[in-house]
């Protein structure tokens, strides 16, 4: 399946990002949607900047770019295949860089300094990143730790059953919050908003869909996708039998910063 098709099923707008767009982006602004993916924010961004504004949507994936070019054919929306680190190739001055769930994939210092170069003085960067790659955050609370350990144990059992001698990691120690603050300080940005928000759901279907993407994109296990999915399904099912009331919380950092 093409990545754009897969992502289309799972992409969802984060409510705080919608408010950020509505509250901070003005008519006539030039906005870069960095890592636009399937363009879930493009219509809203377009409406917000109006006829006199301009949207430049960029993504490093050929497939995402092709998808957006097919779907969004408006005079003031330009779609370009460009990695975040090379954003400085955009030569026009930009009022806002909007980056939903993409900066976590970039070399952050390089990306921030490139963003700073294209932004006008006092230009804005609005972004969201998941603080952990998977849903279950380490060390946030006892229940999460227990659920996660149990899930890892069950995945190991499933892998052994199938004679696959690989290890599954569901999370990585993560210092994203700190790394982002530091990069933005170096890039001379002033923080307007910095909030860490949990999003929780405890339904199995949601979790399955949820893990499918990290497992796929991070190449944690180099085994075929379908097989991986069935391992995960079995392990999750068993884990939920042990922890029926567990609610998975994914923590997102939502930030708005202004260039000094
Ligand atoms: C999780 S999706 C987010 C898509 C969209 N912004 C949204 O919120 O639905 C991440 C997107 O970033 C793109 N991407 C990943 N690394 C990138 C990079 N270094 N430069 C530009 N795009 C990148 C991927 O191709 C993908 O389309």
Provide an overview of this structure:
The structure is a single chain. The chain is globular and about 60 Å long. The protein contains 9 helices and 7 strands. It has a 7-stranded mixed sheet, with helices on both faces. The relative contact order is 0.15. It is of the alpha/beta class and 260 residues long. It folds into 2 domains: 3-130, Rossmann fold (3-Layer(aba) Sandwich); 142-169 and 204-242, no CATH class. S-adenosylmethionine is lined by residues 11, 35-37, 40, 59-61, 64, 83-85, 100-102, 105-106. S-adenosylmethionine (SAM) is lined by residues 11, 35-37, 40, 59-61, 64, 83-85, 100-102, 105-106.
**CATH fold naming of the largest domain:** Rossmann fold
Number of domains: 2
- CATH architecture of the largest domain, by name, is 3-Layer(aba) Sandwich
What value does the average pLDDT take?
A: 84
CATH homologous superfamily designation of the largest domain: Vaccinia Virus protein VP39
Q: Specify the structural class.
A: alpha/beta
Record the strand order, biggest sheet. 3-2-1-4-5-7-6
List all distinct small molecules, including ions and cofactors, that are bound in this structure.
S-adenosylmethionine
CATH class wording of the largest domain: Alpha Beta
Q: Biggest β-sheet, characterized?
A: 7 strands, mixed
Radius of gyration: 20 Å
End-to-end Cα distance, whole Å, is 44 Å
Shape annotation: globular
Low-pLDDT residue spans = none
